[in-house]
Fold this protein.
Amino acid sequence: MSGQQDPRDYVSASIHRDFYYNNILGTPTLIKEYAKVEKLLVESQYLACITIQVPQLHRIEYNYGSQLYSKLLTNVTSLIRDVKEQAFRGTDIFVVDLLDIDTFVIFLSPPRDSGTVLLDHLEVICERTRLTLTQRVFELFYPYTHEYLRPAVGYAMAINNPMINNTRLITQLVTHSKRMGEFLSTRHGYQSKYALQKLIIQRDIQTVFQPVVDLNTLDPIGYEALTRGPKDSEFASPLLLFLLAGEFGLSFELDSLCRQEAFRRARGLTKDTKIFVNTLTMTIHDPEFRGKYLEDLLKDLEIKPENVIFEINEKLAIDNYDVFRRAMQDYSDIGIVHASDDIGNGYSDLERIMELNPGYMKIDISLVRGINNSYIKREIIKSMVSLSRGIGSQIIAEGVETKEEYLTLRDLGVPYGQGYLFGRPSPTLDPIDKTLLTAE
């Protein structure tokens, strides 16, 4: 038996999994419900199922441990159970695939109406399930994966065949459904890429502006230009828009479009108003957007270069600061300032400040949220205010949402702020209601 798995180990693992799913998650395994599933096959002479997989779920266990994995698996189970209760019949059988433990299966009972052919509706049921789960699964896993994690939802049907064992038919049915789910997931990915390419070519984005205010006077010093995709599309969320662009290798193309549209829309700003434009590190090297070309463009748009601040989004690492500084020189030569974005979110902040000496440092929302109740956050911000003064930089606190946060930041000496308290991103430059922020 050397080199072979002891069958008793498999039996023991199966019993453990069956106990875990049935008693911990409240969802039976396929083995536990096998008799009911086989009865559907025999009585109807066919059997259809929907499978739901979260392919990256196992990575949670490897990266964060089994405790968080179990918690998220419980949440996924709850999501699918809710969908099953809302969109499926009570006689449909919801189980977990015992061997592929991150796969859920819903075996569909025959339609009540004998005139309804289940096959005609199977793909529709599958797509409806996918659409219902995708956003919820993404929101659940994004804090841990920072990716657009999609569930793979598939479907398949098997016809009863007396020549083949029922167990084999049911096993093959689940396998084929999972393969269909993988195929459909790949197809949706290609469709999304095509839709994003089309969006970029047709320039189907909207630029909105959010004010950056002086915390002492509450007057706007400028506006950050932000991008929104088409409403009622998967690109409506800016987070998903840029996540998918990165996934499809279209970050450069999308970022270039966003920058061009931001400048075009900035024509309506007053001459002394600053415009903050988000820029990826890679697009700083764009040869078609440097030096004389950019200077002429800004002149045509009647935008002063000294009022342009490029917010460098350094989630993509800067591999060579010397090369990056040389590229930035073309911009600084005509008066453009750069800002380091998301300071405080863990992306080598001190190294970025030391190497690039930014004109502005935008403090990440994680340090701003609840700062009035956090001694540690206040001490960190105090240190950053002192640092900024020493190197001739300016601090902008992002994500200010409450009056208490605003007053605390102002009292700590932070000069500028941005957030919903002062104004939400809008196509129009709405005035700030200063009476809401009067200190008591």
